[in-house]
TrEMBL record, chain A:
It is a multi-pass membrane protein. Residues 112-302 form the ABC transmembrane type-1 domain. One of its GO terms (cellular component) is plasma membrane. It is found in: Cell membrane. Keywords: Cell membrane, Membrane, Transmembrane, Transmembrane helix, Transport. CDD domains: TM_PBP2 (cd06261). It comes from Roseiarcus fermentans. This is Carbohydrate ABC transporter membrane protein 2 (CUT1 family). PANTHER family: ABC TRANSPORTER PERMEASE PROTEIN, MALTOSE TRANSPORT SYSTEM PERMEASE-RELATED. Gene3D superfamilies: MetI-like. The chain crosses the membrane at residues 20-39, 116-136, 148-169, 181-199, 228-249, 281-302.
TrEMBL record, chain B:
PANTHER family: MALTODEXTRIN IMPORT ATP-BINDING PROTEIN MSMX (PTHR43875), TREHALOSE IMPORT ATP-BINDING PROTEIN SUGC (PTHR43875:SF15). The keyword Membrane applies. It comes from Roseiarcus fermentans. One of its GO terms (molecular function) is ATP hydrolysis activity. Its main location: membrane. Keywords: ATP-binding, Cell membrane, Membrane, Nucleotide-binding, Translocase, Transport. It is found in: Cell inner membrane. The lineage of its organism: Bacteria, Pseudomonadati, Pseudomonadota, Alphaproteobacteria, Hyphomicrobiales. This is Carbohydrate ABC transporter ATP-binding protein (CUT1 family).
Length: 317, 370
């Protein structure tokens, strides 16, 4: 950040203009966030409320959607349910009230865990590899550096799905089909090019003198990297990690193609919620809400870095 | 504390020669200044001494030990960078203490040493501040603190005052010299500012295009420039250089410049007739109606106590530093007279000074200085 602020080239906007601008921003935010609020609300509606017309804005919240999401249920007659012992848990009660009996847990927890493991696993790996590679490209004389950087970028030019079939066959052959490690490796491979490019930009911006100062101050290059370069690259690393996570978290096509049961993530799973429950919108909405949460939390946690990072170092110094 | 010896140091970047066959000795406790125009290889030389760059060939000896290919971290040399390179993610205290932490020193001792360094530099009140909000003078002091805290064998400073405004530069210049007088640590200081070099250095090395043209005390460099480059680079205005064609004989204390016989220190070598250059400082030029070397006043520059009078002659432009009350008018024809014992003579082809009585004693001017 510069110590010197350039004088403002324009006069301060009037209070009215400011308020109008704020109103416009709020209006846009509401429009943009409405679908998300709608999904969030639907997750807490009953099935009847979810499809009511005109749509209900005020409704009695219920956890039916979440119970449906997390369990497998069967429909039973009223008489059969009456004969059963009273429900032991609140979720059983919610099911019974709708003439349903819980047969067991659904697979959503596994899918969700898969999403977390594969999403964060590939993000960490891509960011880690990307940071090291970017540092190398930025600081050392790598033979054919420009060509290599272009090659790395070129892996990103083709839509990844264009190579889906060869990858499918390769994965079958290598035993990576339907494994978490296979998905982590695949997403890492896709993300690492982006990571190298983004991070090289950030690391180029960090003056070499900092490391050199550390070198003459008695540190090895690795220590200088850890203690001086990394702390200054956090902004870039955070921004890169968010981009990587967003890609692997949302990825649908590869996961659909390369998994069957073990390594399936949330995106290909969510449509199945519709299928199983016969258009059970609250359950779908509950699944979507749950799916959105980690990325929201992650982004909010890193937003301090993100705001500076997304400008790609333009505001540094 | 250490003596630094540089032998036949050479550095090429992909065929571009940045430093050429450098030789010099920096005695223990000396404040050594490397002076030269931009791009002449000062930084590269300094970085090779510090171990941040490896030489293509040559040797660097630190107190007699060959460190040419040792890592920077093993040389015990502190480096002050032009833009200070303070770690932005650490506060002042951690910045200064950083070199000590690498040695595995105990926390209490680090604290004590950091506070001592801060006291010397009078920045104790800044210790817990982040470095980002500091003024450039204070940043400079923190950078110096980080260098002195280790009590290294030698300090390398790459244009450490370059980022300061001129007022702050004068202040820090004084502080740097004061610091050196207290610590007496061997210091190599790079600058392209001759005033800085003259006022700070015990010894000055003047560089041009990767070559060290001359090294010696500021007085030697000023009074007995070893080459036309040094004569022209040092001094403001620089030494006057007049071209003429003549030969030199050890017995003859004069040369013929056009119509005029001009007295010079007795040559110590014979030189056949060729193109030569006569060098004389503006303060050793006088106007004299009787003089045979004639010229025309081109302009005057009033400086308060003195004035610089520019005279065009057939042998080149000559500037004279005269008392401010001497009356001259532009366009006036004048005669020029030079102080004979302070004249340098150079070979025009090689640019090197020719040995004369000027070079007889190690420091002939020390007492004769006016
Ligand atoms: N890493 C490098 N690769 C290629 N050329 C370089 C490198 N470092 C320096 N040079 C070249 O070597 C020459 C000397 O550079 P150096 O930085 O030593 O000059 P300097 O005297 O410090 O100049 P300045 O006053 O501008 O700092 C310059 O022409 C520069 O372009
Ligand atoms: Mg330099």
């Amino acid at each position: 950040m510069s110590d010197v602020h350039a004088p403002r080239p324009f006069s301060e906007p009037s209070p009215l203009a400011r308020r109008l601008a704020a109103a416009a921003v709020v209006l846009y935010a509401v429009i943009a966030i409405l679908p998300l609020l709608w999904i969030g609300a639907t997750a807490f509606k009953s099935q009847a409320d979810a499809i009511a017309y005109p749509p209900k804005i005020l409704f009695t919240p219920t956890l039916e959607g979440f119970v449906d999401l997390f369990t497998v249920q069967t429909h039973q007659s009223h008489d059969f349910i009456a004969k059963l012992p009273p429900p032991a848990t609140w979720w059983e009660k919610i099911a019974r009230d709708r003439d349903m009996v819980i047969a067991g847990p659904s697979r959503v927890v596994e899918r969700f865990l898969n999403s977390l493991i594969i999403g964060f696993g590939s993000t960490i790996l891509a960011t880690f590899l990307g940071t090291l590679a970017a540092y190398g490209f930025s600081r050392f004389r790598v033979p054919l550096a420009d060509d290599l950087m272009f090659f790395i970028l070129s892996t990103r030019m083709m839509p990844p799905i264009a190579v889906a079939v060869p990858i499918y066959m390769m994965y079958r052959w290598l035993g990576l089909y339907d494994t978490r490690i296979g998905m982590i490796l695949l997403y890492t491979a896709v993300n690492v090019s982006l990571a190298v490019w983004l991070l090289k930009g950030f690391i180029d911006e960090i003056p070499r003198e900092y490391e050199e100062a550390a070198l003459v101050d008695g540190y090895t290059r690795l220590q200088a990297f850890r203690k001086v370069v990394l702390p200054q690259a956090v902004t870039g690393i955070a921004a890169t990690a968010i981009f990587c996570l967003i890609f692997s978290w949302n990825e649908y096509a590869f996961n659909l193609l390369l998994t069957s049961s073990e390594a399936q993530t949330m995106p290909p799973f969510i449509p199945f919620i519709i299928g199983e429950g016969g258009q059970n919108w609250p359950a779908v909405a509950a699944g979507t809400t749950l799916f959105l949460l980690p990325i929201v939390v992650f982004t909010i946690a890193l937003r301090k870095h993100l705001l500076r990072g997304i400008t790609f170092g333009a505001v540094r110094k | 504390m250490a003596e630094i010896r540089v032998e036949h140091l050479h550095k090429a970047f992909h065929g571009f020669v940045a430093v050429q066959n450098s030789n010099f000795v920096i005695e223990d406790r000396t404040f050594f200044v490397m002076l030269g125009p931009s791009g002449c290889g000062k930084t590269t030389t300094l970085r090779m001494i510090a171990g941040l760059e490896l030489p293509t060939s040559g040797r660097i000896l630190l107190d007699g030990a060959d460190v040419t290919f040792k890592r920077a971290s093993e040389r015990d040399i502190a480096f002050v960078f032009q833009l200070f390179a303070l770690y932005p993610h650490m506060n002042v205290r951690r910045n200064i203490g950083f070199p000590l932490v690498s040695t595995g020193m105990k926390r209490a001792e680090v604290k004590a040493r950091v506070e001592e360094a801060a006291r010397i530099l009078r920045i104790t009140d800044l210790l817990d501040r982040p470095v980002s909000g500091l003024s450039s003078g204070d940043r400079q002091r923190v950078a110096l603190g980080r260098a002195i805290v280790r009590r290294p064998m030698a300090f390398m400073m790459d244009e450490p005052l370059g980022a300061l405004d001129s007022e702050m530069r004068d202040v820090m210049c004084g502080e740097l010299r004061g610091l050196h007088d207290r610590l007496k640590a061997t210091t190599v200081y790079v600058t392209h500012d001759q005033t800085e070099a003259m006022s700070l250095g015990d010894k000055i090395a003047v560089m041009s295009h990767g070559v060290i043209e001359q090294w010696g005390t500021p007085r030697e460099v000023y009074d007995r420039p070893a080459s036309v480059f040094v004569a022209d680079f040092i001094g403001s205005p620089p030494m006057n250089l007049l071209t003429f064609h003549d030969g030199l004989q050890p017995g003859r204390g004069s040369v013929r410049v056009g119509e005029a016989d001009i007295g010079i220190p007795a040559p110590r070598e014979a030189v056949t007739k060729r193109d030569l250059i006569l060098g004389v400082r503006p303060e050793h030029v006088r106007l004299s109606d009787a003089a045979r070397l004639r010229g025309e006043v081109f302009g005057t520059e009033y400086l308060g106590t003195t004035q610089i009078v520019t005279v065009t002659t057939p042998h080149g432009v000559t500037r004279a530093r005269l008392a401010a009350n001497v009356k001259v008018s532009i366009g006036e024809a004048v005669g020029l007279e030079f102080r004979p014992d302070r004249i340098s003579v150079f070979d025009a082809a090689s640019g090197q000074a020719i040995r004369t009585a000027l070079h007889d004693h190690p420091h002939p001017m020390e007492h004769a200085h006016v």
